[in-house]
Amino acid sequence: MHTTILALDLGTTTGWALRDGSGHITSGAVCFRPQRFEGGGMRFLRFKRWIAEIQQSVSEIQFLYFEEVRRHAGVDAAHAYGGFLATLTAWCEHHGIPYAGVPVGTIKKHATGRGNARKDAMLAAARARGHTPADDNEADALALLHWAIERHDAAQEG
């Protein structure tokens, strides 16, 4: 039995990667762009509902990791990230799920050997592991998941 781990690249388009208890990895990207005639908080409620659906699909998320972003391209991106992060961490606290942020450079270095790798290098790294990411958000989540798996599997062996 494997540890169930969910890895997220938070943002308006959130990349996700999940290893379930059988060791099977699934991934994708989901868009939380505000919809027409929708209040400002609805995207975060949709995000919370989506996480709950993932939790139900695997019966239990044992660990959750997210890409920890310290610099944003603009104010809107920073506000969106903060909202997703607040929603995520509150949800994890409510459900007793351990969570941690992992710096972007750490994830990129693990995946490509370079802490400042570009999007195309992250996509290539995911493909080299046998995945077919639709975009860089999914590739980043897959890289984070593989980083987390190595940490968890090494800790269980040691």
UniProtKB/TrEMBL annotation:
InterPro entries: RNaseH-like_sf (IPR012337), RNaseH_sf (IPR036397)
Full protein name: Holliday junction resolvasome RuvABC endonuclease subunit
Organism (species): Sinimarinibacterium thermocellulolyticum
